[in-house]
Write a structure and sequence with these properties.
Its cofactor is Zn(2+). The chain has helices at 4-9, 25-34, 44-49, 56-67, 73-89, 101-105, 111-129, 145-155, 184-192, 207-215, 232-241, 249-254, 266-272, 283-286, 290-301, 305-317, 323-329, and strands spanning 12-18, 92-99, 132-140, 166-172, 196-201, 221-224, 245-247, 276-278. With 330 residues, it is an alpha/beta fold. The chain is built from 17 helices and 8 strands. The chain has one domain (4-318): TIM Barrel (Alpha-Beta Barrel). Helix 9 (184-192) links the parallel strand 4 (166-172) and strand 5. The chain is globular. The structure holds adenine (ADE) and zinc ion.
Length: 330
């Protein structure tokens, strides 16, 4: 794509990224071997060939299975460092990474192992090439609020040790039937504790879930949010409040949130004046990292260079970086 050098050079951040979604099939196989885990696929290619999704749940089944190879601190480090090296190559200046501790603690992996591996990679990237990073601990919405509260309590003793990284919480996993209201208490507790708040809403779920993520959870940023378009009053609110949407075009295509990328509403939302950003979600599963998401979207929606620059600038202003750092990047 002729805009590749331009997009590579844009100062930009990634704000919607599940670190478990960066596990490439090759690394899944390598970690399985290292940990003596038998995978139900004969080869890397057979695993990759299984990545044919019809909806969010069909993806989540493979995503949680893939994360089952993560056992040691080194595993979490290796996964995270592989992603950060790609972001260095793509000209990314800052990342806000979600991780799903419940996926690991349920298998007997200690939450401190997860934090330690992620943090070692993130600090190394910061110290060696100046890529900054924050962590957003995400609660799995298909599990109970009680489970989320227990997870928060398990993580809180680690807060001091990771103050430079762990700045907020998120909400992910199967959206339908798991509305934001289900997590009102845990979000209230996180708000009291001073955490920044994001939540997935309006990916497969209705616009009402976006509304309740704002009203009940007091989310400051909405992950996906593309179905907000179904509610004009909500759209006006998102515009006036400048609530950012972290949109993931290739994810929406692979999970059949849209049938074709040229039907994606990102350009419409951008034209209406929403603070839209482009992100990769689970790049190892959806066929492209951040720059690929920019370019595929530009191609499908005929985005211009100035529009791509606006999207990159939005990704900086929508981040949780201090204002001084935002200004330095803009
Ligand atoms: N977990 C990982 N990726 C997700 C997505 N796109 N939606 C909800 N939960 C997720
Ligand atoms: Zn996501």
């Amino acid at each position: 794509h002729h805009l590749r050098p331009f997009v590579l050079g844009l100062p930009k951040t990634e704000l919607h990224l599940h670190i478990e979604g960066t596990l490439e099939p090759e690394l899944i196989f390598a970690l399985a071997e290292r940990n003596g885990i038998q995978l139900p696929y004969p080869s890397v290619q057979a695993l990759r060939d299984a990545y044919q999704f019809t909806d969010l749940q069909s993806f989540l089944d493979l995503y949680y299975a893939g994360a089952g190879v993560l056992i040691t601190e080194q595993d979490f480090y290796d996964m995270t460092m592989a992603y950060l090296l790609r972001m260095r190559a793509e000209g990314v200046r800052h990342v806000e990474i979600m991780f799903d501790p419940q996926t690991h603690t349920v298998r007997g992996v200690d939450i401190s192992t997860v934090f330690a591996g992620l943090a070692r990679a993130l600090r190394e990237a910061r110290d060696s090439w100046g890529l900054s990073a924050y962590l957003l601990l995400s609660f799995l919405r298909h599990l109970s609020e009680e489970d989320a509260l227990v997870t928060l309590e398990q993580a809180l003793p680690l807060r001091e040790a990771y103050l430079d990284l762990w700045i907020g919480v998120g909400l992910d996993s199967g959206e339908r039937g798991n509305p934001p209201e289900k997590f009102a208490r845990v979000y209230e507790r996180c708000r009291t504790l001073g955490f920044r708040l994001v939540a997935h809403a309006g990916e497969e779920g209705p616009a009402e879930y976006v509304r309740n993520a704002l009203d009940v959870l007091q989310a400051e940023r909405i992950d996906h949010g593309v179905r907000s378009e179904e509610d004009p009053a909500l759209l006006q609110r998102l515009i006036h409040q400048r609530t950012p949407l972290t949109v993931c075009p290739l994810s929406n295509l692979k999970l059949q949130v849209v049938d074709e990328l040229d039907q994606h509403n990102l350009a419409r939302l951008l034209r209406l004046g929403l603070c839209v950003t482009i992100n990769s979600d689970d790049p190892a599963y959806f066929g492209g990292y951040l720059v690929e998401n920019y370019l595929a979207t530009a191609q499908a929606l005929n985005l211009t260079a100035p529009q791509l620059a606006t999207l990159a600038r939005n990704s900086i202003s929508a981040s949780f970086l201090p204002d001084a750092r935002k200004l330095a990047l803009l």
